[in-house]
Amino acid sequence: MDRPHKIAVVGAGIAGLTAAHYLRIYGFDVTVYESSHRPGGRMSTDVVQDCLIDRGVQFLSGNYNTLLPLLGEFGMADEIVSITPRSALVRDGRIKALSIGRLPPGLAMVLKCLRPREALKFLRGYLPLHRQLASLPFDDYAGWSAFDREDCESMLTRTLGSAALDYIVEPFLQALYYQSPATASAALGMSILKIGSEQQRLMTLKTGMGSLPDRIAQSLDVHFDCTVHSVIKLERGVEVGTDNGTEKFDKVVLAIPAPVANRIYRTDDKVSNRLIATQYSSTLKIGIATHPGWQLPEHWKGIYGVLIPARERTSIASIGIELEKGGARTREGQLFDIILAGSSRDLLQQSDAAILEQIRPEFERYFPGAFAALRLAHVVRWEHAAADSPVGRSQEVNQYWRHLDPGSTVLLAGDYMGFPYSDSAAHSGKRVAEFLKQSGLPCPSP
To answer: Domain check: are 293 and 227 in the same one?
Structure first.
């Protein structure tokens, strides 16, 4: 009987864990290497005093095709709780509350945040695109290459109008991906329109978003605190160099941010080289808890979060009101999740105190007196927050999969191989596992 192929998965973020999980199910001998002390990467949760703070990924969506089935496979369906279906957006300094449960979020924003002439321009441009967008996949960025010909700002301003770009698309680009319409591909912008055109059920997990990666990792052979320094193709197989020496594998899945993959792996394949050269946006996520004596202003009650467009912001892209998120996020007072725009990269090296001082005036514009009642602040810095999506990346991902040889010994997974969000990253890991299964590699007989 042929022995099962030995496969190394580098990275225990959600892409790597998903790849490893399905590879194990398919019968491969899988080892996972993770440089940090815990799994999940950007899908992880900190417990700080009495506060449950998601460090990166904030929610799940009802249209997720990979993460939701994983929750079922691991018996975690009871962990899912719905998020309050009301949000808000700032325009002209005013809070525009949006009920996204009854209407698709994009339509709610058009009706509430655009002026009549702006809304008409949007609808005239959007309606001819609706059927095409509806046919495209939520999780497979390669399927969006038809829109990957020009930047988001140029295409959407021409098609939908500048107001729609400023108040519908740009706020989501920053709050979700920390990217600018001027540098992002129209494919990424159009995907936001698709998301906005469909009814959304936003959800979270009672014990934090990191509970799913934690559960997956428990079922796998994961080497934590083990940095991979090199991945070298051999005549037969691949050599992986770690803190503990070298080991030979039949195949390797690189499921780490592209800049890290680019440091440890060299290849003659031009498409792979361009993909691992993908740059990343940065952000800071700040959890702020108040003493119980401070009261949330009445007009914020029942609202999960607010998006702050570029025309309205200094540095804050969004603010989440965590008690509306679902689950017991804190025992007392209010807990906020603040996400800074991608332009906040310069703050990464600043002290926590300097960062809090920087954001205080802008935050208190919306929540007066909250800083005076501050009892806890938790700053998380993400140098590699989300894969940039310049013009051409969707086409390159498409080309990668179309021409991937079954004999390839190093395969790529992660958010730079899809949309820069959690379910698409997980999808990329599952796709690698399915590709290897279909490649006819020897696995144990049932």
So the answer is: no
**Tokens representing 260?**
């890290």
For 282-305, the pLDDT digits (tens) are 999 999 999 999 999 999 988 999
Give a yes or no: residue 97 inside a domain.
Answer: no
Which residue range is the domain that position 110 belongs to?
102-197
**Residue 54 counted as domain residue:** no
Q: Where does the pLDDT of residue 70 fall: very low under 50, low under 70, confident under 90, or very high at 90 and above?
A: very high
Whether the predicted model's global pTM rises above the 0.90 cut: yes
Helices (H) and strands (E) in the chain, counts: 14, 20
In one letter, which amino acid is 84? Answer: T
Do 399 and 273 share a structural domain? Answer: yes
Q: Is residue 187 part of a domain?
A: yes
> Angle 186-197/105-113 helices, nearest 10 degrees?
90
- Edge to edge, the sheet with strand 251-254 lists 222-223, 29-33, 6-10, 251-254, 410-412
Q: Which of the listed residues 174, 197, 220 is the one where a domain comes to its end?
A: 197
CB 285 within 8 A of CB 45: no
Q: Which tens digit of pLDDT belongs to each residue from 138-159?
A: 889 999 999 999 999 999 999 9
Residues 6+ apart with CB under 8 A from 76: 205, 211, 212, 215
Report yes or no on 73 lying in a domain.
yes
